[in-house]
Amino acid sequence: MQEQQFIPSKKYQLPEEGHVAWESPSNIALVKYWGKYGEQLPKNTSISFTLSHCKTTTKINFKKKDAVKDFSFEVYLDGKRTESFEPKIKKFFERVEVYLPFLKQYHFKIETQNSFPHSSGIASSASGMSALALCLLQLERQANSAMTEEFFNKKASFLARLGSGSAARSIKGNLVVWGEHQAVRESSNLYGVAYSDDVHAVFKDYQDTILLVDRGEKQVSSTVGHDLMHDHPFAEQRFTQANDNLEKLLPILASGNLEEFIHIVEQEALSLHAMMMTSHPYFILMKPNTLQIINKIWEFRQTHNSKVCFTLDAGANVHVLYPKEEKEEVLDFIKNQLVGYCQKGMYICDEVGFGAKSI
Ligand code: PMV
């Protein structure tokens, strides 16, 4: 599909007022997206597990207004007016207006909340931007009942991507691929597609316990981070590595070979951080406790013949990934040996989920 296909071709009879509400999950990338071009298009293909419990719930009340010159909206986080969110949302509205040409006709009251603690260091942009995109597209769907479910999901992912790249992977499916790759049918740079080709049962309920090592503000915003890939000395090798890793991962997802799975997932996490450590300017986003945890995980894996592994986002927190059959053992390990490395002992138990829900 092309961008133009997401521009409504007809004028619809839009509702005067109403409300829409969606909850949308966060996701954790196995093969990482880091580096973009054009309008939020990825330099390499990525794949993620959709999460289940870490999610954003967004409700929008909309009402037609007279003047259609400007966007008009107010944002509430956990019931409190949060003006600091508004510039980012305004930018999002500007980007998506051509695909949702009715935006200036309404005043929107946007109420949003996250299931995970604010400033936990867990990125809320994937769940937040996808929930917002779904709500706005739901308004279009109210006026266009002919819109198919398939088109709705594609366009929601397309719009979410324009808010935050990784948000494209938070709409549908337990595994989602974003970025064109010859090994994945119908994959696209424009939106994420659910990957359901041949996936071993072990991955259907994979566990992700997120250890909150550093709950502070992000040291490097992802916009700055992606930009650092522009004249990065290893950029081209990194994009090739990620695309190769994606291709290697597909047969592993089918066979359930966890040793090979671990190898790719951990290499991806460390490669992402290696990019940040070797850019200009350079950053170390891991904290001493991140490294302590990684070493403990490696030790536990060896001594307990476990399949536990880790991945990282662009920050210090550690996602501990493991098959459900190891849940009890790994949670004991976390409680006994890892909690001491978490800020205020905080961690969040999550697992693979299936995507966003209208509520
Ligand atoms: O969606 P963004 O622009 O915040 O990028 C996030 C990128 C990573 O989380 C670091 C990796 C990924 O693929 O999710």
Give the overall shape, derived from the CA principal axes.
globular
For the biggest sheet, the summary is: 8 strands, mixed
Helix content: 25-40%
The unique ligands bound to this protein are: (3R)-3-hydroxy-3-methyl-5-(phosphonooxy)pentanoic acid
Tell me the span between the first and last alpha carbons: 29 Å
Structural description of this entry:
The protein has eight helices and 14 strands. The protein is α+β, with helices and mostly antiparallel strands and about 350 residues long. The longest helix has 21 residues. The two termini are about 30 Å apart. It binds (3R)-3-hydroxy-3-methyl-5-(phosphonooxy)pentanoic acid (PMV). The site of (3R)-3-hydroxy-3-methyl-5-(phosphonooxy)pentanoic acid has 14 residues, from loops.
